[in-house]
Amino acid sequence: MVHSMTAFARVEGAGAHGTLSWELRSVNHRYLEPHLRLPEAFRDLEGAVREALRQGLSRGKVECTLRFAEENTGQRLQVDENRARQLVAAAEQVAALIQQPAPLNPLEVLAWPGVLVADVADPQALNAAALQLFEQALGELRNGRAREGAELARLLGERLDDITAEVAALRGLIPEMLANQRQKIETRFAEMRAEVDPQRLEQELVLLAQKSDVAEELDRLATHVAEVRRVLKAGGAAGRRLDFLMQELNREANTLGSKAFDPRSTQAAVNLKVLIEQMREQVQNIE
């Protein structure tokens, strides 16, 4: 099964000291690019969270936000005096550069992250709970990416069916189109009432047939379609492989268009390019 790179997950867990919640958002990206937003008290989790993402995902830009609503009932608030002194010293240093600085508000100092802390019994237990909750959120994110990936595979399968139908229809029309082209050339020479060497005319018609031969392009289109189906069925991190195959499909469709000598073959080439472009846009979201 292939996975999409677009998904959202949110989980929440309540404990003795408050409520933890994770929000995970992922979108398509060439590589795995995590962006973490963690409260100051949970900074030690960053390495473990990044490793969990690396183990669970291969591509995508992933935003991970942790929120902690602390339960202060019955807990004694404390001031981190060392941090407060550092903050006041820094504020006084900046104030010295200003002609008329505003007085420092103690409440603003208390509002600074890490100055006012609650008497938390076991920070390690909180970190462990947050990490466990993150694993749950990551699982939900992966499930969401899998569901959307299955839908993308279904849509790609429909486009592949359409491409196969276009190739089969064009392959069946080629003998008729070549015969029509031959008739047009013979009619044109007849109207000109020119004396034409039959052997030379036959050579020109053979050359035209060779230039207009698209059997090789049709065969390669069919081969690429079969390979796309195989990759989709195999699953895994298939996005880059599928993107390469979209380029190859488009190359054959372009060649088909350049060899077109009949309105029907021109239209078929246009239809194929539209279908391939629709697939390419979907493939950009596959992991």
Automatic annotation (TrEMBL):
Q: Name one GO molecular function term.
A: RNA endonuclease activity
Q: Which residues form a coiled coil?
A: none
Can you tell me which family this protein belongs to? Answer: Belongs to the YicC/YloC family.
Q: What is this protein called?
A: YicC family protein
Keywords attached to this Swiss-Prot or TrEMBL record, sorted alphabetically, are: Endonuclease, Hydrolase, Nuclease
Enumerate the cofactors the protein uses: a divalent metal cation
The highest taxon in the source lineage is Bacteria
Q: Give residue ranges for domain Endoribonuclease YicC-like N-terminal.
A: 2-153
> Start and end of every Endoribonuclease YicC-like C-terminal domain?
174-287
In terms of InterPro entries, this protein maps to: YicC-like_C, YicC-like_N, YicC/YloC-like
